[in-house]
Design goal:
The chain is an alpha+beta fold. It is built from nine helices and 20 strands.
Length: about 450
């Protein structure tokens, strides 16, 4: 299918192919298996005889979706419904070109079948070939359902994948009264579902209707009436089954009996909604201090309340884990097990050993101060000093974190001297006879 016109064409290589079958069907537009063909497109094809006979025009017929569109042996050749202004028939010595211009556009996403029957002059060779192509998608998406999943969240579903073209192209109106008017403030699409976030809580158990205009499918087809609206029920938060908090039944019977106009009942219904919202907030309060459900901001407050001494940057999962084990870390403070567990918790590194500190040995006449020997501390310092050994090379951040952990968790009277880790393997400059050169 010719979609663009190129300013120039260069042929790099030409290969001669000897055809076995005659005649040949070629230069098809749209091509076999082509998808996304415009609905108003034409159908063009050529029948070629690579031999000396030529194409028998009278024996050539073309069907489109089972309907005869061209009959070379009839008059007129181009059948009604396929003889638009772009239709033409061109015959040369070895080629018959047929262009069909359907009067009726193809159906959206339709698979169009084209059958071509022809023969060479004299009938020695025949052609009967069928191919298909698919029309473009111009079917508008349909809004099939809507559901409130939270007090300020509504999800609407479509019959195909969609994208949000206008974040403010959504409207929600209450069907029943009294009801709080709500306005969508954001919209995000994922697959066939669009999630709307509202500016305030909707009225529970009240019917609402959502209308979507800012949505289109992946081919750009916008949603159209009447398939752009759906009804849903206002979200009611979960509540204890045994709770009874009905303001209307709490009023004296005399007040309820004298409410002939229903104004009092409607007014109490407005107050009931406020009371239900307050109760739902109270019901959600345990989520604030629950380590598994608390928002990140409250996790920071929980760690601060527990006196978290570790200044490390943690993700949400790390904060939840730390809050759950921090008290146990306090209990193990001052023990080797506590140091090992804390390093494993934060860094995932198992320390090899916690060894007593031993100073370097002084060899008279050989050791040099500050080079291979340093002045050691007192025996009392060495008695309570230790090193931490690991069996993996560490980064600078890991070294500083391990030192911070050990300095906090070690016993107060002990001294953390050094962090020992494996160094790079030694390299040797070998001397080989006949190869190495002195100097």
């Amino acid at each position: 299918m010719s979609a663009v016109e190129l300013p120039a064409l260069y042929v790099d290589n030409v290969a001669a192919i000897v055809a076995v079958e005659r005649p040949l069907l070629m230069a098809r537009d749209p091509g076999p298996g082509e998808a996304g063909v415009p609905l108003e497109w034409f159908v063009a094809l050529e029948v070629l005889d690579p031999g000396p006979d030529g194409v028998d025009r009278a024996a050539t017929r073309v069907w489109v979706d089972g309907v005869l569109a061209f009959d070379g042996g009839a008059a007129p050749e181009l059948q009604p419904g396929f003889d638009g202004p772009r239709a033409e028939v061109v015959e040369t010595a070895d080629t018959l070109r047929v262009v069909l211009d359907p009067a009726t556009p193809f159906a959206s996403e339709a698979e169009v079948q084209v059958r071509v029957v022809s023969a060479t002059a004299g009938g020695a060779h025949a052609l009967d070939e069928t191919y298909t192509f698919t029309a473009e998608d111009r079917t508008a998406p349909k809004l099939v359902a809507a559901q409130a999943t939270a007090q300020r969240v509504v999800q609407i579903g479509f019959d195909e994948d969609v994208v949000v073209t206008d974040p403010v192209g959504f409207a929600i109106v209450p069907v029943d009264l009294p009801a709080v008017p709500v306005v969508p403030v954001s919209a995000t699409a994922q697959g066939t579902v669009v999630t709307l976030v509202l500016n305030t809580e909707m009225t529970p158990d009240v019917a609402y209707q959502v209308t979507a205009t800012g949505v289109a499918d992946l081919q750009g087809n916008p949603v159209l009436p009447p398939d752009d609206a759906a009804a849903f029920t206002g979200f009611r938060p979960p509540r204890p089954a045994a709770r009874r908090f009905d303001l209307w039944t709490m009023l004296p019977r005399h007040n309820r009996r004298t409410d002939a106009t229903g104004d009092l009942r409607r007014f109490i219904a407005c107050l009931q909604e406020v009371a239900d919202l307050l109760l739902s907030e109270v019901d959600r309060y345990p989520d604030v201090f629950d380590l598994e459900r608390a928002p990140e901001a409250f996790l920071d407050l929980i760690l601060e309340d527990l006196g978290n001494p570790f200044p490390f940057d943690l993700d949400v999962l790390g904060k939840r884990r730390l809050a759950s084990v921090l008290v146990e870390m306090y209990r193990q403070k001052g023990t080797a097990v506590g140091i090992e567990n804390a390093i494993r918790f934060f860094l995932g590194i198992d320390i090899t050993a916690i060894t007593p500190f031993t100073g370097t040995t002084l060899v008279l006449g050989e050791s040099e101060l500050g080079v291979d020997w340093e002045l050691g501390p007192s025996d009392r310092f060495a008695r309570y000093a230790f090193n931490v050994e690991v069996d993996v090379p560490l980064t600078g951040t890991q070294r500083s974190q391990i030192r911070a952990i050990v300095d906090y968790l070690k016993p107060a009277h002990t001294h953390f001297v050094d962090l020992i880790e494996p160094g790079p393997p030694p390299t040797f400059d070998h001397w080989e006879l006949g190869i190495s050169e002195l100097g």
